[in-house]
Write a structure and sequence with these properties.
Structural class: mainly alpha
Protein name: CAAX protease self-immunity
Keywords: Hydrolase, Membrane, Protease, Transmembrane, Transmembrane helix
Low-confidence stretches: 224-246
GO biological process, one term: proteolysis
Pfam families: Rce1-like (PF02517)
Radius of gyration: 17 Å
Helix content: over 70%
Shape: globular
GO molecular function, one term: endopeptidase activity
Number of strands: 0
Distance between the termini: 32 Å
Length: 246
């Protein structure tokens, strides 16, 4: 049943990050500082997650376990995480050449900023995106939309559109098109497994591997092409920035 409480929670989950990204971008200090700006972005993501968790407990009066459909035993969990991560990387390997062939814009600018960070900072950015975005867009939003509509396609579709359009804030159209691929896959994976912790792990591992690989190639490459190619092959990691994130 649609209620004010449900609408409020969905507003936080589906529109919180894009709105916060606009605010952070508007009041960003000058001159630009990649580390400081990413720290502000990540702090906002964790704050939004904390707000949503508080909303679930104190406004909805429900346990945090209501933000996921189920949980798996350790062996099943490991299989799901490994399989999901392979799926994301395989999809990137297949779609990146197609995007390149048709001249769809890449993520070179965003990834070049991220590769300037230390290894620990890149891991933190990657995990932040994986945990917070899965909790908001999938764990909460899809579960509540499933309760409301009983329709997995509608619930997943709304979540996917909100996630993809949310990244349109500050990103070029080509980058958003590339982001749509892992966004769609993680949405489908969530609908299949219904375990938000597993999706957090898949999303985070994909992001971490992508950013570390991009950083390694950026260090070894004498030209800028290396970073761009790696960024495009790892578009699942594009969600780590919400206000140019992932």
């Amino acid at each position: 049943m649609l209620s004010v409480e449900l609408l409020g929670g969905l507003a936080i989950a589906l529109a919180g990050m894009p709105f916060a990204g606009l605010v952070v971008s508007r009041y960003r200090a000058s001159p630009p500082d990649t580390r400081r700006d990413l720290l502000a972005s990540d702090a906002v993501k964790w704050l939004l997650l904390a707000v949503l968790c508080g909303y679930v407990v104190f406004v909805e009066g429900r346990p945090l376990s209501s933000m996921t459909g189920r949980s798996f035993d350790p062996s099943s969990f490991a299989i799901i995480v490994v399989t999901g991560t392979i799926v994301l990387f395989t999809a990137s390997a297949v779609t990146t050449p197609l995007f390149n062939r048709f001249g769809v814009g890449g993520l070179e600018g965003e990834m070049s900023q991220l590769t300037s960070l230390s290894r620990r900072q890149r891991i933190f950015v990657a995990v932040t995106a994986g945990v917070t975005e899965e909790a908001l867009f999938h764990g909460y939003a899809i579960e509540r939309l499933l309760e409301l509509t009983g329709n997995p396609l509608l619930a997943g579709g709304i979540s996917f559109v909100a996630f993809t359009l949310g990244h349109a804030v500050g990103w070029n159209r080509g980058a958003v098109a590339r982001i749509a691929v892992p966004a769609l896959l993680t949405t489908v994976l969530y609908l299949i497994v219904r375990d938000v912790v597993a999706l957090m792990a898949i999303h985070s591992l994909n992001n971490v591997a992508s950013l570390l690989l991009a950083g390694a190639i950026a260090t070894d490459s004498s030209g800028a092409g290396g970073v761009g190619d790696t960024a495009e092959s790892a578009d699942g990691a594009a969600s780590q920035k919400d206000e140019p994130s992932q």
